[in-house]
Amino acid sequence: MNSNLPLTGTAELLELLSPFVPDDFINHDWPTGATGGRRRAYTTAQLYRVHLLSLLTPVHSLNLLVTLLPEQRAWRQFAGLRRHSQVPGVRVLHEFRARVGVLGLRQINEHLLAPLLEPYAWRELSVGLIDATDLPAACGGFKKSTGQYSAPHAALGGRTLKTGQSRCFVGYKKHTLRFWLHDYRAGVLLVPLVSWATPANRSEGGLLVPSLHHCQRQWEWCPPLVVADMGYLGAAAKRWCRERWRVAVLTKLRSDMKLVPPYVAWNQAACPQGEPLTWLGLDGRANEHWFGTGASPELCGRCWEASHCPRQFAYRPEEHETLLGRLPLASPIVQQVLQQVRPWIEPAQAYEKTNWE
Amino acid sequence: MSQVFLNGLRLTWVMSLLADAVAILRARAIVGHPPVRPLLDALTPTQLSLELPG
Fold first, then answer.
1. B29 touches chain A (CB under 8 A)
2. Number of CB pairs < 8 Å for A and B?
3. Beta bridge partners of A315
4. In whole numbers, what is the pLDDT of chain A averaged over residues?
5. Is the ipTM of this complex over 0.90?
6. Does the model's pTM come out above 0.95?
7. Is B38 at the interface with chain A, CB within 8 A?
8. Spelled out in words, what is the top-level CATH class assigned to the domain A124-253?
9. Of A6, A54, A173, A331, which one is least surrounded by beta carbons within 10 A?
10. Any A CB within 8 A of B7 CB
11. H-assigned helices in chain A
């Protein structure tokens, strides 16, 4: 998130990013061959680059981009358009989107991601973050005749209450599973693994399993730790991720949720007599978490059950998917990840929404 | 992204994936061009953290 890259919209940034756009890959997979009639004046990579400009410049609509493109030499240079008189129109851009489609754009992203993810695949500890962001639609209103908003598939969705913002909005949500490139030490660097666009009224939790399934199918691997907010508390999805892919979905506990033994607080475990317990590990064969008293327990010497107390206790992960699950909430690693990584979710979303303007 | 003209789910999806592409391109540029640090960076004074009891 914090980088020394040039500011968005500058020609310097376009020059820096230009060599990383996979022109050969795009032109190879979507060649501009014979159409049986009209000649294609632009390569697929050129049109892809024009679309990127809508997010790398202060222009917020493709129509405005097409209008301004003849006047902006640096933008044309980035897109590989030599003459100012020859720039693609909105129809050509529409045809590009229809031709490449969502699946094609995902393939390009996966091609771009490959060298970044290679060093992290199959590592025991790597962290993903999943969250959704609001995208209000350019919507003229609600049509009574059709019972829908004027923007196709837009829906009324709720968002977290913030000062100066309404409780609801009409539009869509972008659900993104990001990955933390933790080998990069100069700052926090997150890259999106997979994104979904849905109407705003779809629940966030429903996209957790599809996101991990996509990673498994694409890379035969997914981050073993996934940090999420309260929208992903659902036990069924967590259990599925744990049993199928051995992924720990880490969320905090909602204040009104009941605790189960050995927990006495969301981040603290204790024996029935109150002696604090530490997590010893997961017995994979028996599928049990083991908790034990510390090296010098305070209460055990005076406890009436001391003579027959094993001082170690086992609990099954399915007893509570959030408190126990793949990794117990009281374990030091989960505490560290939740305290360190969880606060990055909102800034990552906010950065994506605002810093590219 | 929040200011982009989005008038359909399909366009939203396309723009979302393009936004991801920009994020990945930026990450590749950052990783490929690590921040330049002065040679004497290790010798410059830094603020010590004060560990206060919680």
1. yes
2. 148
3. A289
4. 84
5. no
6. no
7. no
8. alpha beta
9. A6
10. yes
11. 11-17, 23-29, 44-56, 62-68, 73-79, 90-117, 208-219, 235-245, 332-340, 345-354
